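Reviewers of the previous submission asked for a worked example of the structure-prediction workflow described in the proposal, so we include one complete record here. The input consisted solely of the amino acid sequence. No template or homolog information was supplied to the procedure at any stage.
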Amino acid sequence: MIGSLRGRLIAKHPPALTVDVNGVGYELEAPMSTFCDLPASGAEVHLFTHLVVREDAQVLYGFATDAERRLFRGLLKVSGVGPKIALGLLSGISVEGFLRCIETEDADSLVRIPGIGRKTAERLLIEMRDRVASLAGVGERAHAPGTPGNAQAEAFSALVALGYKPAEVTRLLKAAEGSDGSIEDLIRRALQAAARD
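From that input alone, the workflow returned the following structure tokens.
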């Protein structure tokens, strides 16, 4: 499987782009979030990729970040969501914004994205709820190890693994603000807040 491409960007016509890698032109489709970060034609570009093989075609998708690719792959596992809908979602909302919608069970924000109806939004909320912990570390909120943002993401994952719902974890972590910033202290304060409820 093709995991990434590094080469010269030779054409970009949303959602399609072509990257020349040592004389071979790879055609890809990419979300608008990736298009916004692309350099001018002729410049070098590095993209994470995902290959979808169908009976009638093989389509290579390109992403500016690994976070976008991991979310794309997670979305493909949701029943009724194919590459076209997944690409539309990534074009209409950031990785961070999508994770926040799942955590807060905000179907209304998802419905505002073109191509996403109420039933699809509700299915996404249900089926992505359990996957949000594994994706939480790849969003735009993921920081370098040891920074408060990373501690928040790891504490979030740990509390979801303990069985708390994502929306409840978000509330508990807000209640835990003022901790020393360590993962352990965040979790301890969040559990104390849960015990008080």
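The domain at 66-135 is CATH 1.10.150.20 (DNA polymerase; domain 1). We consider this example representative of the routine output the project will generate in years two and three.
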